[in-house]
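Follow-up to my earlier ticket, as requested here are the two runs.
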Amino acid sequence: TKKVKFETYAYMRIRGSIIDELRKVDGVPQSIKNNAKTLQEAFSYLEQTLGRTVEDEDLCKYLNITSDELNNLYKSIAPLTTTIPFDDFILPDDTYFLENPMDVLIEKKETCKILGEAIAELPKKEKTVITLYYYEDLNFKEISKVLDLSQGRISQLHTKAILRLRGKLSRRLKFP
């Protein structure tokens, strides 16, 4: 009734199930995943509620934690934010997509548009880190030299940007 091929539906459901299973055995402690989810949801909720860019102080108040505790959360989840390149998210290398270009063309364009808008809304430093990391292929050490900041600070900015983007995208896109 929705004029979507069964194969499209089945592919997305199967792919989602595979990803779920891989996440179960990925070796990342559940507590770290929970921390990432908590921060992502906090970013999403606060940006929606406040109608502006969320600052660390907003997060601390909302989560009832200190700035040191927030920084420790960022550090603990940093490895989770560097494992999935945006290219894989937008343009999966998969034969299904090659065989069914019309089924996914609109979805890809919409996803790219939403991702571009979300990146454009990031605070300046976070946007710069995302641009240099994903579009200019610089690593954190190189970015730290360009921006004259420590590698740790670059990692923190990257983590915050990814959390913001995930929060924005989770509100606007529906994933399996």
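Run two:
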Amino acid sequence: MRYRCFILLFFIALGSASAQISAPGASTTLQTSYQSGTGDDPIFVFTSQQGVNRASLDVRNPFTQAASSTWKKYNAATRTFEFYASTTAFTVDDQQSNMPDGLYQVEVSDGSSTTTYRAWVFNNWIQTQASIVDSDCSHFVLNGTYSAASMAYYDPASGEKTVLQPNYTAIWQSSGNQVARSMLTTIYSPPAVNTNYTLTLSDNYGSSSTTNITYNSIVPKADFTVEPATGEAPLKVQFNNASQNADTYEWTLYKDIDVIKQEAAKAKGQPVDSVLRKLSADNFTYTYENSGHYKVKLMAVKTNAVNLICSDSLYFKDQYIVADTSWVQVPNVFTPNGDNVNDQFTIQVQSLKSLKMTIFNRWGRKVYSYDNNNVTSGKDTESHAVWNGKIGGSYASPGVYFYVIEAQGRDNKYRKKTGFVHLFRGK
């Protein structure tokens, strides 16, 4: 009974005295949990690198005069403490640096009294590696692996081993944004540019490791702009390719959506050809001769090693290129008096293929005619289908005149307008 009390008092004193031993620079401090119940020791974990010992212990002189120290290191195989180092005549504290993993016991003596302290130290480290595997047109896999320090302590009384279990946190980032929280992660819809990824692996003892890997893109990204996207037929459109990481391009220009619907209705369930034209080009211009709503698709293609062919397709973001429908507008009055205001009888047209206009006086005599079977634009017709209010070089008399307009639009619609226009001469 006396022996047991002695042992218990010894470890209580040892635990109390452990406050005199410290570890400057330790990232984490915790306690052992010996199964023998003989009193626990502090554990100091240091952030280090593989093969580098950064652990250190500092023992304070508990006496009022100079003391000496004897350091011993625990040998788990023999379950004994073996000489490690010694220091003589220190007054304040004694520090040991670059210490390997293990349990250390230091005896501090002033010649007449001796005090003993113990502590575990571990040099903790993580080393990460990163690779890219299983890369194809639809995805690739970020593969992170690691090696790390193994930290285990032993109960000096029983020799029982306890392994410290780190809790790891893995984070993949790209351009400062978090991508995943798993060492092995699949990236779908790969980027079309070479992209750097960073893996950081951390544990709950303050250690971390970071490594980088570059994804060398094998996929293209289709993109394009059009100018203009809408206007009068014939509509001349510039197609500008803005794709990334592609070798070849295939454009598909589709027919007017209404034409496709009409052809599909006639086909009664049979497939119809909806393609207006296919082109293999970078940038080009195309003229839509007829009015309508037209879809456009660009497919960008990249050919990689081992004949892996990746492609990406994109439809025009505004859905349709719109060549406006045809129309004719006619004024009902004009004043050819030389004041440069409404001096000419000018009709406004849009998306016409042909235009014929005839003007008669009140007795049915033809005083002006215009005929154009190749109308190119409204502006073109403005410069031609214009009556200046003269007949044979002389000013026509004020009054009411009758017009007949016959036109065919680029939407293949026939348009006919008849009516009266008033000619005023006075200012």
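The only thing I checked on run two: Residues 201 and 268 are 62 Å apart (CA to CA). Let me know what else you need.
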